[in-house]
Amino acid sequence: MHPIMIMFGSPFSRALLVGWRHQSLLGSGEPTLSWNHLGSRRPEGKAADQQSSTKIARDRYTSTVRVRTPQSQQSQGVSESQKRRGIIGCLLGAAVGDALGLPCEALSSNRQQKLYPQIDGHRFIFGRGMISDDTEHSCMTAQALIVSGGEPDRFSESFAWRLRWWLLSFPSAIGFATLRALFKLWAGFPPDKSGIFSAGNGPAMRSAILGVCYGDDLPRLRKLVQVSARITHTDPKAEWAALAVAAASHMSLSGEPSPQEFLATFRSALGEDAERAEELLDLLDRAARSAARGESTESFAESLGLKNGVSGYSYHTVPVALQTWLRQPNDFSSVLNAIRCGGDTDTIAAIVGGIIGARVGKEGIPPQWLERIWEWPRSMAWIEQVGERLARVCATGIPQQAVSVPVWALSLRSVGFTVVVLGHGFRRLFPPY
What we know:
This protein is mostly helical. 61% of the residues lie in helices and 0% in strands. Helix 4 runs antiparallel to helix 18 and helix 14 (278-293) runs parallel beside helix 16.
């Protein structure tokens, strides 16, 4: 049953009605949750109005006076302007990588080579690109950071509501675990109970921006990665892989680490989980050694048994993405090497693009790749505006309203996007095979 088809009086319908009432977590123009516990008895009449007004006032007061030490003061060796550049570069880089990789998604390396002998730009529709769920999740993560000021509990609530409304925009690309988790959110499960036991790469695809913003505050970063992951995926493997991407984006922002420096830093970031995450550490050690040898990304993927394409399993996606970054940390065009591996190409390229984008900024992304993304309402200018506002939040520690986006436009855009996706699927029925 689609989430729009609800029974009046169910926990879902109560959540839906309440969700439209206030905008304290999502910001301007977007509905959100105003009750802490879905399904709990709701006050009625004057008492309800008084309780609601009191809570809104308290939330606004809390978000105003809860001023933290600005991130620019906490960072070691990263200036405020450098972080701003990294945040914008991370978001735009993820979008460009996503758009470049999207036409090749689910193709094996061999079939991709036959359909697209040369990839040097966008090929989604008339030489232009569009973004998919990878970029959308990164933007929702950034928006939740803006309105929460990086406070994990508020971030969790805001991000969960963004995911709920995103589902109602009829996204054509959505992982099965994420879909089930969003149904649970709409059914009334809180964010810490909605996740599905899965080690898919959903959390990893949206975690690069977390590392850029809060990599200099490891306890907070680990908590943010944890709540972001567990909303949809509860397998610790998904969380650890997401933490690896966050650590990589932070190190990319801060400098040009050697492969072994990254591995040592990530092991330290895992803390007491390092022993349990030994399998991932071993895979990343292989990635680091491969990058140090200058081995191609395709060869490394083949050594992991991924000759026919990199799957959406986080322990496949993340080692390949990080090997690509470690091999060419300052060259944004290396996203093309990740795409050539086949499989979940948009997610791999989005992760690589976000990490390298944090290093090179908007200026280091080929202008033609940025300019030829055909998107609305989440245009490249809109994404850059999100980055600008998030940078101000990181600099001051004060939450702000989210950058508005017309909710009705998202569903309309999804219809057009789906038509193009179906066109690609139809084309794949024909030679060359």
